[in-house]
Amino acid sequence: MGLNRYADHAVAHKSPLLNAMTHGVMNGGKRVRALAVLAAGELNGAATPALLTVAAALEYIHAYSLIHDDLPCMDDDDLRRGQPTVHVVYGEAQALLAGDALQTLAFSLLASRDVELSANTQIRLIRELARASGAVGMAGGQAIDLYHVGLSLSQTDMQMMHQLKTGALLHASLVMGALCGEGDVNEPIDALNLFAEHLGLLFQVVDDILDASQETAVLGKTAGKDDAANKPTYVRALGLEGARDYAQSLYRSALAALTPYGERAQRLADLAAYCATRVY
Question: Domains in the chain, ordered, with CATH?
Answer without folding.
Answer: 4-277 (1.10.600.10)
